[in-house]
Amino acid sequence: MQAALNRALAEILAEDPKAVVLGEDVGRLGGVFRITDGLQQRFGADRVFDTPLAESGILGMSVGLAMAGFRPIPEVQFDGFAYPAVNQIITQLARMNYRSRGTLPMPVTLRVPSFGGIRAPEHHGESLEALFAHVPGLKVVSPSSPHEAYHLLKHSVARPDPVIFMEPKSRYWQKGDVALDDAGPLEGAKVVRPGKHVTLVAWGAMVARCLAVAELAAEDGIEVEVLDLRWLKPIDADGLAASVARTRRAVVVHEAPLTSGLGAEVAALITERCFDTLRAPVGRVTGFDVPYPSGDLEDEYIPNIDRILFGIQRVLEYRRG
Amino acid sequence: MDNNLQPAALPAEELRQLYRLVTAVRQLDLAAIAWQRQGIIPGYAPELGQEAAQVGSAFAMDPELDFVFPTYREMGVALTMGVDMTAYMSTHKASWHGGLYDPVQTRLAPIQAVVGGSVLHAVGWAHGQTLSGTRGVALTYFGDGASSQGDVHEAMNFAGVLKAPVIFFVQNNCWAISLPTEAQVAGGTVAARAAGYGIKAITVDGNDAAAVVLATREAAAHARAGHGPVLIEAMTYRRGPHSTSDDPGRYRSLEEERRDAGADPVQLLADRLLAEGIADRGFLDTALQDANANADRVREGVMQLGTRPGSEMFDFVFAEPTEALKAQARAWREESEHV
Question: Which of chain B's residues have a Cβ under 8 Å away from the Cβ of A233?
Answer without folding.
Answer: 322
